[in-house]
Amino acid sequence: MAAQTGNRRLPRRSLDETRSLMLEAATKLVCAGTSDTSEEAVSAALAHIRVKRVTEEATRIMRERLGDDTAPAITTGSIYQIWPAQSDFQAELLFHLTGRQAELVPDLPESIRRFRKAVESGTPWQEALNDVLTDNHENHRVDPIYRVLLGFYASAANPRVRDALGHYGQSFTKVACEAYQALLDAYGLRMRAPYEVEHLATTIAALLDGFHMRWIAGHPNLEDPQGEDGWSLATRAAVMVFDQFTEEDSEPQPG
Q1: How many Cβ atoms from other residues are within 10 Å of residue 48's Cβ?
Q2: CA atoms within 13 A on the CB side of 103
Q3: What global pTM score does this model have?
Q4: Which of 69, 200, 85 is CA-nearest to residue 133?
Q5: Which residues pair with 223 in a beta bridge?
Q6: Dihedral (C-alpha) 153, 158, 160, 166: value to the nearest 10 degrees?
Q7: Under DSSP, is residue 164 helix (H, G, I), strand (E, B) or coil?
C-alpha cells in the first residue's frame, strides 16, 4: 500500500532507489558548484574561516609576541575598517596563501648552492636534481597550505579565485625557472629546441602536483622502481622529463 500525503499518493521506492536518486542529485549540485562565478564561491573556498575566530587568534598571537596577556584585543570592528565585507577579507587571504605557496622548497639560493656543490663534487646532474626535488616532494606531501590550495580549484570559476591561482602559478613558475636555469648552467646543459625553460618548469610542476596528490590520497606504487634510497617514482619521472627537454650545450660559454 502506497504512502499518502493529503490526497496525494506517493510511489513507494526501495532504499536502493532512494540512495541512487540522492547520490545523483547531490552529484549534480556538487558539479554545479564548480561553475559558480559568484562571490559566494570565494566564501565557499574558505567557508570555515570566520572573522571572529581570526580576531581571536590574531589577538593571541599579538599578546604572545608582546609578552602581555592584558594587551587590548583586536576587534571585529577594526577588521571591517580594513575589509568592509568578509568576502573581501577572504579574497585577500586567497592571494596571501597562494603567495606563500609559490615559494620554492628548498628556496632558490639553497637550490643554487646545492647545484654548485654537486658539480664540485662530481655528482651527476640526475642526483643533484633528485636531491632538491625530493625535498620539494616531501614538503608538499605534508604542507597544510598546499592541501588548502588544492581545495581552491573547485571554486576556480570565480574570477577572484582564478586570479589567485593564476598568481600562484606564475610566481612559482618564475622562481622555478631560475632554479632550473641554474642547474642547466652548472652542468653545461641547454634546453632542446623548441622548448624553453618555462616549458620545463611547467611540466615538472604539473607532474609533481599529480604525485603529491596521489601520495596524500594514499595511492600505492609510488616508491622508486629501482629500490634506491632517496629516490621515488616522482623524482625518477621528473629526471626523465628533464633529460628529454634538455641536451648538452656544445657552444662555449663566455669566460
Answers
A1: 7
A2: 13
A3: 0.80
A4: 200
A5: 232
A6: 40
A7: helix
| Cell numbers describing residue 31 | 558539479
Residue stretches of the chain with pLDDT short of 50: 1-3, 5, 255
pLDDT at 34: 59
Q: Read off the amino acid at residue 106.
A: P
86-101 and 144-152 helices, crossing angle to 10° = 120
Is beta strand 8-10 parallel, antiparallel or unpaired with respect to 3-5?
A: antiparallel
- Give pLDDT tens digits for 93-112: 888 888 888 888 999 999 99
The residue behind cell 500500500 is 1
Reference 130, options 197, 204, 206, 218; nearest CA is 204
104 to each of 72, 111, 176, 228, how far by Cα in Å? Answer: 37, 9, 7, 25
DSSP code, position 2: -
Are the C-beta atoms of 165 and 154 separated by less than 8 Å?
Answer: no
